[in-house]
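User: Here's a structure from my thesis project, written as structure tokens. My advisor, Dr. K., wants to see whether a designed sequence matches the one we expressed. Can you design one independently, without my sequence as a hint?
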């Protein structure tokens, strides 16, 4: 399946996103809920072992997507189903919490398969950005920090998504959506400073 766009490091050119179907048996119905938030995770195991674990019936865990170190996105669970990635709630800090409802029922989970030192590669960042943009557009999920959250914002004893800075992710995506290029914004800033 090919869907969406890919941004290079300047965030102003496009390519197509490749999604490979890698089905997981670990999912359930959404019980009448629709996706309202996107939960970003970083896997603990190295690729492809994390993909094998998320698609293993005995693990009882999954996510909707996993972004491999080469930037290729694997879809494990269809978005109209609940993946098992964020069901345990412990001292949550995110504002979109629905009391008494399993967050899996109203979220889409994205795992980024991290390499050593917990570093997200540029190709993974590109894939993460385009995937969030695509999911948000199709599900009318706002691109903001109330709707794009880390696993630790649901379960406070987790460090997930590790070094992925979701404030930066959201601000970059808002910049991309603005349709302006960086040079244009720099010029506007310089002009404003000259007027002061």
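Assistant: Designed independently from the structure alone:
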């Amino acid at each position: 399946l090919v869907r969406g766009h890919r941004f290079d490091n300047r965030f102003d050119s496009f390519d197509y996103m490749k999604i490979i179907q890698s089905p997981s048996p670990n999912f359930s119905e959404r019980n009448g809920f629709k996706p309202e938030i996107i939960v970003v995770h970083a896997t603990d195991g190295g690729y492809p072992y994390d993909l094998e674990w998320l698609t293993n019936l005995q693990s009882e865990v999954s996510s909707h997507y996993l972004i491999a170190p080469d930037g290729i996105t694997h879809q494990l669970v269809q978005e109209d189903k609940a993946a098992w990635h964020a069901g345990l709630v412990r001292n949550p800090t995110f504002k979109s919490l629905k009391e008494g409802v399993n967050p899996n029922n109203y979220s889409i989970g994205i795992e980024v398969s991290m390499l050593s030192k917990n570093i997200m590669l540029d190709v993974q960042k590109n894939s993460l950005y385009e995937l969030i943009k695509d999911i948000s557009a199709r599900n009318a999920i706002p691109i903001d920090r109330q709707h794009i959250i880390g696993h630790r914002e649901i379960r406070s004893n987790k460090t997930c998504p590790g070094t992925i800075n979701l404030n930066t992710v959201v601000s970059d995506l808002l910049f991309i959506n603005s349709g302006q290029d960086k040079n244009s914004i720099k010029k506007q800033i310089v002009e404003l400073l000259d007027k002061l």
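When you compare it with your expressed construct, this may help: The chain is about 25% helix and 15% strand.
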